[in-house]
Amino acid sequence: MKVLSLHSAGHDTGVAYFEDGRLVFAVETERLTRVKHDHRCDVALRHVLAQECVDTDGIDLVAVSTPVRSGLLRIPDMDRALERTAAGALHHRTVCEMLGRRVECVVVTHEVSHAALAAHYAGWEEGTVVLVNEGRGQLTRSSLFRVSEGALKWVDKDPLPWYGNGFGWTAIGYLLGFGPSPSVAGKVMALGGYGQPDARVREQLLAVDPDVMNDRELAERVRADLAARPEFDPGFETASHVVATFQEMFTGAVREVLDRHVTRTDAGVGPIALGGGCALNIVANSALRAEYGRDIAVPPACGDAGHLTGAGLYALSQVAGVTPEPFAVYRNGGGNSRADVLEAVERVGLRAVDYDRSEVAGVLAAGGVVALAQGAAELGPRALGHRSLLGSPSVPGMRERMSEKLKQREWYRPLGAVMRDERFTALYPGQAPSPYMLFEYRLPDGTAPEARHVNGTCRIQTLGPGEDRLYGLLDAFEGLTGVPALINTSLNGPGRPIAHTARDVLDDFAHTDVDLFVFDDLMVRGDAAR
User: Fold this and answer.
1) Stretches in the chain below the pLDDT threshold 50
2) What is the pLDDT of residue 34?
């Protein structure tokens, strides 16, 4: 069974290809075009179909999440498909015209695609409660599903109040002057660590008419009313208290909904999975994991970029009866060839030499910054060691250098860190690991201070020996410094998506304050090291 899976319309589009339940190739459009949240799925589709590993003539099934770019797929009964999914059908089975022939097609409801991806990361465990929570889906802003006898069952629609879903984060960001971009929520959430929940703010937010989610005129009146109150002044201190209050309300609302649906036995709480963009909220994720005393499944590409695999996973497991295989997060594109790296390096006037772990560890130990690009990139918004900027978390000023100067991000935004599994276990005995950097942990005083948020926490990625290059580099770095972690932040210049190719990396950073570039088995000394 060969399946082409698309997220064809809206932001964060992309395409994936499965063969016999195995994810063979996937790519997010923005990595090819270098336009954040790019909607031009046709670019990704052409790229995927051009890969040698993709059997374009043998595709048996096309899966696509809603909304659908109908001109790309040419589905003859598109109106009927949208009518059925809008009425609550999990999917609509039809045909589409592409690749010069008619191919069977499954149109998957937006929320269901999110849920399938989350269920996949939960291993389709019986009884798993799946909460899909986002700014806006096709039918809902939040939905509850349950895995029952291997199938997804839609349990509840819009169980969360306005302050418990992505609309609320967008609204708070807009109220505080951050604009309407899909990236706003991440910027806004970081403010909460600097503030404290305020009872006055909470009271006023709770008093907002729930119809604010569905009535634009009402939403604007509410915004104007709140903006005029001193508690909602956009100044940093006031804004941080607003966000801290909203975060507490958001986390509480999610917990209350899950409380009504999770299974409880003498052995504890049953399996839980989170999908949709709100599953990137590490404060809520961490609080829920502590509350329920168990790990929670969260896909690393839980936002709309996840649809490029979610639609295919649903079609395989729920329509075709094929059990999809687990897949690594490192499946975005196909990596860089040695020839492409050498050409990109020569183009910017630098020189490549063979990779030397000791030299790279030495650069980091001396306070240098290393750009690491190896193999296929990560699916989703988190850099997890394949497209990462690395730095020592014990060198004073490193956070400012990497975040504010190199990436030109807001000064208050924190950086994550990566550490080997055994070091994490020693620091946090009995706690679940975090391979996708989706949970926060309180850092002991003096441990990785430049990766420590103002509230004492850090978003940690845990790494096993299977990722041998970065794992070995962490070992060598600790041997030189005694420091058990490295700062790990995404490899992208200001306002750009994560770099995909060696040329992208060098376009963003060749003549900046990066000391060393690593491209698989090659490394390149940057201007800062000369």
Assistant:
1) none
2) 96
Distance CA 277, CA 10 (A): 14
Q: How far is CA 249 from the centre of its chain?
A: 22
In the numeric block, which tokens belong to residue 430?
A: 């009995």
- The sheet that has 91-98: what strands, in order across it? 22-28, 14-19, 2-7, 61-65, 101-108, 91-98
Beta bridge partners of 265: 268
Q: What sign has the CA pseudo-torsion 210, 211, 215, 220? A: negative
C-alpha angle with apex 237: 236 to 239, nearest 5 degrees? 65
Residue 262 main-chain phi, psi, to 5 deg:
-65, 150
Alpha helices in 193-235 (DSSP H): 199-206, 216-227
Three-state SS for 284?
Answer: helix
pLDDT digits (tens, 9 = 90+) for 146-180: 999 999 999 999 999 999 999 999 999 999 988 77
Q: What integer pLDDT is reported at residue 518 of this predicted model?
A: 98
Any residues with CB less than 8 A from the CB of 400 and at least 6 apart, and which? Answer: 411
Tens of pLDDT, residue by residue over 24-52, are 999 999 999 999 999 999 999 999 999 99
Q: How far is CA 279 from CA 158, 186, 273, 334, in A?
A: 16, 11, 9, 27
For residues 418 and 485, the answer to whether their CB atoms sit within 8 Å is: yes
Which residues neighbour 228 within 8 Å (Cβ) at sequence distance 6 or greater? none
Provide the pLDDT for residue 499.
Answer: 97
Exposed/middle/buried for residue 435 (C-beta within 10 Å: 0-12, 13-18, 19+):
middle
> Comparing C-alpha atoms, which of 458, 468, 473 is closest to residue 516?
473
Q: Are 368 and 335 in contact (CB under 8 A)?
A: no
Between CA 422 and CA 463 the distance in angstroms is 9
Q: Provide the 3-class DSSP secondary structure of residue 47.
A: helix
Q: How many whole angstroms separate alpha carbon 395 and alpha carbon 365?
A: 9
- Give me the residue label for tokens 């709309």: 304
DSSP-assigned beta bridge partners for residue 459: 440
